[in-house]
Model the fold of this input.
Amino acid sequence: MQISWRGILNSMQNKFSAEHTLGYDLPGEFKESNKVAEKQNMISLSVYNVGRQRCTPGYKWGPGIRDHFLMHYISSGSGTYTTAGRTWRLHTGDMFLAMPDTQILYQADTEDPWTYEWVGFAGTDAATLIGRTDFSASHLVLRQLSYGDEVRRHISLIYDAFGNTFCDTVNMTGELYLLLGLLIENASRAVPQSAAKEDNVSRAIDYISSRYSYSLTISDIASYVGVSRSTLFREFREELHISPKEYLDRYRIQRASLLLKDTDLTVASVAASVGYDNGLYFSKAFRRMTGKTPSEFRSHGA
Done:
């Protein structure tokens, strides 16, 4: 068997370059984070933030909500990720996704704290691109990626391209497309029927996130996805274990909670802002899901 020494040397050089660029030669804990100060009109896809962190034992972020997609790749150590009522224990080589406007919590192990890289992004194409990877609303963790070094390299290149000029934005977005292309290229195609089902749910979620503030019915959502109401109901129950109506109500109440906390809008204005044209129905729905009326929530918090 002929050994490709050039290939081996190139692989070693790429791995060294990634580790050096990502700061792993730094001693102790560190955090390097870049956030885009101004969005530069990249509507289809834009990088919001990128960084890397070697965490202290037990370090956690959350519970909290992001307004964009956020991917983490674990390059060493372990920790836990909690969202939507589920908790995963993750290790070196795993990757996890946070969905927009969804409460998350992730925490480093107390004995073997993790080091990870992340990139946050959004845009009109973001949900579609994510939908072509092995990630979905019900599949938020990828285990033991065989191409993990390539993931790290692309995140490092996004980090290196960081800046707040339009040219920087284009460069970062280009590297992000390559990262998502890598995930799509390595996506499993073994269960196309399941993938189609997940894609329907993902498209429905994306539509809800962009139209929740308007008068929106389940028939509207099903029509957009291109399936019947009964099919949409069944696929939501199979993927998320809740109905489309319950997901829509939860999403609206979640957005309403943020408006009550962060703005001075009246309760009626908050209701209208998240798609409720009946203030009484909004108050009942809010209390059913949070245990408090909107006014109580604003006065005392969650």
